[in-house]
Structure formats: C-alpha cells, structure tokens
Design brief:
By secondary structure, the chain is of the alpha/beta class. Helices cover 41% and strands 14% of the residues.
Length: 269
C-alpha cells in the first residue's frame, strides 16, 4: 500500500453498481482506506465490506446530525468496535452548522460525543471526529478541544484521533496538535487556497489524507462522485502547498496513519 484514505464511505449506495471493481482498481493503484460508518446500518455495512478486502478497514459511530432518529446505544457500538478490522470510533463529534434548535442540539450532541470518547478510551481505539463550526465562528472546534482536554487529563494517550475534513484555523490546529490529534484534508485543497496557511503550519507528522468519498471530488471532477483513488491528488496538493517532495510527503502521511490506527499498512497490496 502506498496511500491511505483515512475517511471514505464506499459502503454507501452510490457505489452499489461498481464497488468491487472500484476496490480492485484501488488495489492496483496501492490505495487502501478506512470505511467510516455514520450510523448503525452504515457501520455494519462497513464491517461487512472490509471483511472481504485486505486493504480496507472500518470505523464505527453515529454522526452528530446525519441520523437524528437513531439513539446511540453503547452496547451495540461496543460490539461492533470489537471486530478486529475496526480501527476507530466515529465519525462522531459536534456539528453546529445547521441546528434547528441550537441549545437542545448542542446538549444532545455533547452527550453522544462524550459517549463515543468513553468508548474509544474503553476499547483503546482512536476517534474519528466530525466537528463543524457555525458560520463565522470556530465554536464546534472550541467545544471539542475543551472536551478532549478534559478526558486527556485523566486518560492520557488513550485519548487520540483524527479531525476529519479539518476546516479550522492555525490556532485550532495548534491546539489539536498539542493534544496529539491528526488533521486530515480532502481534495478541497485542489480547488481552494482557504486552508493553505494551516497545511503549511501543521507538522507533517500530524497530517492525514482523506477523500470523504463520495463527496468532494478533486479538480477537474468537481460535482462528480468521488472515490478513494483521489487521495493521490490530496497528497500531491499537500506537497505542493508545503513546497516539499511528494514522495516524502506520501511516505510520512502513510506512517502517520499507521501510528494513529495501529495498523501495518505498507505490507498490504
């Protein structure tokens, strides 16, 4: 394996027509990935998929606002997390972008997020965090940092993870890096310069590459279905923005994924 997509959703029905063909193509290009659940059903689907493919792994969790009707059942997700190919808990977090009832939503999201943090500590797995601030603020990141700091003080290195699709600024990046969390970037880097300052600021040892497939296809394929092979474009963009050798960046980001997820990826096809 040469590239690792730290966050994709290829268990979604957008891939029903060609999923196996896509995974074969990923293998040919040296691309592996973490298939991330957003609720019980998609978490179960992720596990079923990764059981069949050496280069794929899973994360299980309940998205903060994609599935408002689902109640987070710790025992169910504990059982899912016990699968040997489940490497992370999430995606989970705090999403303040479009709350219908801000205060009630925040209370519920915080409670469920803390349950995920506790499960990650119990299972000794990293978190896959989706936090999205309200417009013009960094509120969701600020609250996420406060929660993680609280648990980190008591549980130390057992509190670790990745900030998926990171859109925060330098100060937020600094605080997550201080907590030893990684920041992952998508192919949005290929068509906007909004995050270049943070990509240059962050230590290379704390960056991951992801696609969030089927979303956020790279230029020039914007608007089309994305897939994990686009992680190669993400690595290229990170190297370009930082002014560093692309092969060096590729190798370091793969090492970062191995360290965070506790998996040996290089020996996989």
């Amino acid at each position: 394996m040469k590239y690792f997509d730290a966050h994709c959703h290829i268990q979604f029905d957008a891939y029903d027509a060609d999923r196996e063909e896509l995974v074969r193509s990923m293998d040919e290009q040296g691309v592996g990935g973490l298939v991330v659940g957003v609720d019980r059903v998609s978490s179960e689907q992720a596990i079923k998929l990764v059981e069949k493919h050496e280069s794929l792994f899973a994360a299980v969790g309940l998205h903060p606002n994609d599935c408002p009707e689902e109640v987070f059942t710790v025992s169910l997700y504990r059982e899912l997390a016990s699968h040997p190919k489940v490497l992370a808990i999430g995606e989970c977090g705090l999403d303040n972008y479009r709350p219908e009832d801000p205060e009630a939503t925040k209370r519920k999201q915080r409670e469920v997020f803390e349950q995920h943090v506790q499960l990650a500590i119990e299972t000794d797995k990293p978190l896959m965090i989706h936090s999205r601030p309200s417009k013009g603020t960094q509120d969701a990141y600020e609250d996420t940092i406060d929660i993680l700091k609280s648990y980190k003080r008591e549980h130390g290195d057992k509190v670790r993870g990745d900030m998926h699709f990171f859109v925060g600024g330098v100060e937020e990046a600094r605080q997550f890096v201080d907590l030893d969390f990684t920041l992952s970037y998508t192919a949005v880097l290929t068509f906007t310069q909004d995050y270049d300052e943070v990509v240059r600021f962050a230590p290379l040892t704390h960056l991951l590459s992801e696609t969030d497939s089927p979303y956020v296809a790279p230029a020039p394929n914007r608007g089309k279905r994305n897939d994990p092979r686009a992680v190669q474009a993400v690595i290229g963009a990170i190297a370009r923005i930082r002014g560093e050798d692309e092969e060096m960046v590729r190798d370091q980001v793969l090492q970062n994924a191995e360290r965070l997820f506790g998996a040996t990826l290089r020996g996989l096809k």
